[in-house]
Amino acid sequence: MPAQNLPAPYLAVCAIFRDEAAYLEEWVRFHQAVGVGHCYLYDNQSTDRPESVLAPHVAAGQVTLIPWPTPWHQGAQRQAYADCLARARRQCRWLAFIDLDEFLFSPSGRPLPEVLRRFESAPGVVVHWQVYGSSGHASKLDAPVIERFTRRAPTTWVRNRKVKSIVDPRRTLAPLSVHHFAYAGDAAAVDETGRTVRFRPKSRFKKGFKRLYGRFYAHLEPVLRRLPVDPYKGADIDRPGVRVALLRINHYPVKSRQEFLAKARLKKERRRYEDLDYFSYHDRNEIEDKILVGYPDRLSGS
User: Fold this and answer.
1) 3-class DSSP assignment, residue 192
2) Which of 8, 11, 22, 213 is the residue whose CA sits 20 to 30 A from 92?
3) Which fold, 11-298?
4) Phi/psi at 27 (nearest 5 deg)?
5) CB atoms near residue 216 (< 10 Å)
6) Contact call for residues 111 and 44 (beta carbons, < 8 A)
7) Rounded CA gap, 101 and 81, in Å?
8) Taking the alpha carbons of 124, 128, 134, 135 in that order, is the dihedral positive or negative?
9) How many CB atoms lie within 10 A of CB 101?
10) Could you tell me the residue ranges of all domains in the chain?
11) Cα–Cα distance between 76 and 194 in angstroms, integer?
């Protein structure tokens, strides 16, 4: 928990990870810079000693590191989110649930707490992705993620319809998926425009169709990538469009080819990469967008 001499954070983040020690320092420092007051980090059986990287942040009361040995296929992520809701219930005003390959910020250039104050009447706020590709990098380089990868998919690409949630833990009952939550009184979250959103039932392509789609994708990629088809589709919000003017998550699902292959070898990731070339599907580089290069230094009020 946060150190006793520190004020309760207005905004905290929760994430679960495995063998991502090389990315922790950048991720924690970035989110501290944009206004996150505390990080709840769940270590899912890492072997690369993340505790050594996080030790200064833990000692400063800025990070809570929780060992989380639950096998991934047994719902480790949702269980961690439920645990974090209980821990943070009266510890923060807002709690964001994101991953280590996601960077939450405001394109307005304002700190997140300042932006979130306008949504205090809502139990939760959903934030859309902007998916970044490899930017042509085959190997890992010694530079921050947000500086190495500066090319992304078009804003309206079908995968960018996915959202993550920032919730009021006092009014949030449980995670219904890693993307959305149940709120007290059957209340609804809002998007960055303040309009309420509901989630449509989770749906996925049948495995046979996904395998067929993947087989053709390798040969017809220039055509298929323009179609509004998401073979990884899960629960989705009921409002069309992608809104990232006020709140946004830069999502780096593949990074370089070398880093992707290292991640794909993890047992918890294997099922995600069956039947379809996950790297090729997500390696979208049409738009050059350097919005996060030097972003923390440009924050107003910092």
Assistant:
1) coil
2) 22
3) Spore Coat Polysaccharide Biosynthesis Protein SpsA; Chain A (3.90.550)
4) -65, -45
5) 11
6) no
7) 17
8) negative
9) 21
10) 11-298
11) 31
Is residue 205 left, alpha or beta, with left meaning phi > 0 and alpha meaning psi from -120 to 50?
A: beta
Cα–Cα distance, 186 to 138 (Å, whole number): 47
Successive 10-residue mean pLDDT values, the chain, 302 residues: 67 97 97 97 96 97 96 92 96 97 96 97 97 96 95 94 96 94 96 92 58 63 70 75 96 95 68 64 94 83 48
CB proximity list for 302: less than 8 A, separation 6 or greater:
33, 111, 296
Assess contact for 241 and 300: CB atoms under 8 A. Answer: no
Q: Which tokens in the block code for residue 249?
A: 């998550």
221-244 residues labelled b (16+ CB within 10 A) or e (exposed): eeebbeeeebbebbbbbebeebbb
Secondary structure class of 128 (helix, strand, coil): strand
Tokens of 39: 């990080």
Angle between helices 21-33 and 50-59 (to 10 degrees): 30
Do 91 and 9 form a contact (C-beta atoms < 8 A)?
A: yes
Give the DSSP H or E segment for 39. strand 38-43
Tokens of 65: 């590191």
Q: How many CA atoms lie within 13 A of 245 on its CB side?
A: 6
Query: What is this structure's pTM?
Result: 0.91
